[in-house]
Amino acid sequence: MNNAKTRFRRFAAVVLASVLPLSLLAGCGSSNSGKTQITIFNSKMEIQDQMEEMAKTYSDAKDVDVEVYYSSDTVAAHLATKYASNEPYTVAMVDAKDVYALARDHAVDLSDQGWVDKTDQAIAIDGKTYGFPVSIEARGVIYNADPIEKIIGESFDPTKYATLDAFKALIAQLKQGGISAPTAVMKEDWSLAAHYLGEVYEEQADPAAFIDELHDGKVNLNDNPKFTSLMDSFDVLKANNYAAANAISAEREVSEQKLAEGEVAFMFGGNWDWAVINQYDYSENMGVMPVPQNTDDESNEKLVGGGSKFFIVDSSDATTDEQRSTAKDFLDWIVDDADGQSFIVNDCSLVSPFTNNTLEVADPLGASVKEYSDAGMLIPSYNYMPDDHYSVLGAEFQKYLAGQENRAGFAKAIEGYWKSAKITTPDA
After folding, report:
1. Least confident of 111-120, 320-329, 351-360, 418-427
2. Contact 141/264 with Cβ under 8 angstroms?
3. pLDDT at 420 (0 to 100)
4. Quick count: other Cβ atoms within 10 Å of Cβ 200?
5. Beta-carbon contacts of residue 65 (< 8 Å; ≥ 6 apart)
6. pLDDT tens digit sequence for 187-217
7. CA 138, CA 272: separation in Å to the nearest integer?
8. Contact (CB, 8 A) for 305 and 270
9. Structure letter (DSSP) for residue 386
10. Are 313 and 91 in contact (CB under 8 A)?
């Protein structure tokens, strides 16, 4: 994985060095061959190879010129440099919060497009649709049922372990059956703060109002039932972590391999983890279950997620109407064309957010997410966290994971962060 990241960084460096001449070509609406040229920014590293291959085949099939670029910088920072130099991408893949931040000034209103009625995950602002959803992603506790079933002697039914009490009893049974440490905990700041801590906000009755109260210093997290419930669950994962002695040194790839091959049974994560898991000798008998909690609000019966990554089409004078039309054709291809549907589901192993894409999801984690999504059992993601949320609070969460900070101290750090954080909402 590290080699892959290095390769992508090198690729990004080469791309950035060549952006100017490509953008000049794009501004003319055609390449030297006379074809309309569009540029696509991809912010999802694990599908860069697939995006590049798609660009080649799509360009040949449609007689256009499609170039795909990737950068390891944050989406906001990278696109800011592009806008500042008047070299925007024709189509940019961004996160939900970026749609809200950028759409009014930089994106085309796509409300009149036929695909809008085929998804409930598109992003609209002031009644105008700007964000084209690329996929659905969701998170919870990933499980490998093989080692569990060998010990409990029956098929693993995640719904039986929705409460923390039941989950703790299962963990004890697995340990008694020979798995000394049944869980893995990723130490990455984005996993801890953006994803796990994010659920504390997302499972509130009104996440936006809760964030406002945090910002105003009106929340005592240690008295908040959701913070307590989720941290109680995290403590069980933490206590039974195979890397508990050196938790913040655990490599993601090692944790994913142990989960894939059944050395551990559980790890908090999401269906994007399949991109790593499938590199190993994995079991197909896997899935994603809600975080077990002793709660009666049904949050322990749902995953957290929704539309993940969105395409926006550039509205500036640097992009021609012909290019915008070609970009819209590309989005239609993803939604309605059999090859476009297959690209999302089969090539990229993503869960399509469009109702007319009925292709069976290839990987078991994605299949779990689709099952929960189809059943309306997703708690919506909170998409407005500040850019430094996961780096600042991820570092604090790592201290907690390593036993260097207690829960009260962690809670105070979260409260302190939000008091000075810039609040972003759809109306900001």
Report:
1. 418-427
2. no
3. 94
4. 20
5. 30, 31, 33, 35, 36, 37, 38, 59
6. 999 999 999 999 999 999 999 999 999 999 9
7. 8
8. yes
9. -
10. yes
Q: Residues 328-360, buried b or exposed e (16+ Cβ, 10 A)?
A: bebbebbbeeeebbebbbebbbbbbbbeebeee
- Vertex 54, ends 95 and 49: CA angle to 5°? 70
Token pair recorded at residue 130: 């700007």
Q: How confident is the model at residue 86 (pLDDT cuts 50, 70, 90)?
A: very high
**CA R_g for the chain:** 22
Alpha carbon 135 to its chain's center:
9
Task: Report residue 425's pLDDT band, with 50, 70 and 90 as the boundaries.
Answer: low
* Structure-token pair, residue 240: 């039974």
Pull the structure tokens for residue 68: 């795909």
Cα four-point dihedral sign 235, 239, 242, 245: positive
Residue 157 in tokens: 């039914």
- 407-420 vs 389-401: helix crossing angle, rounded to 10: 170
- Rounded Cα distance, 98 and 247, in Å: 32
Cα–Cα distance for residue pair 205/227, rounded to 1 Å: 13
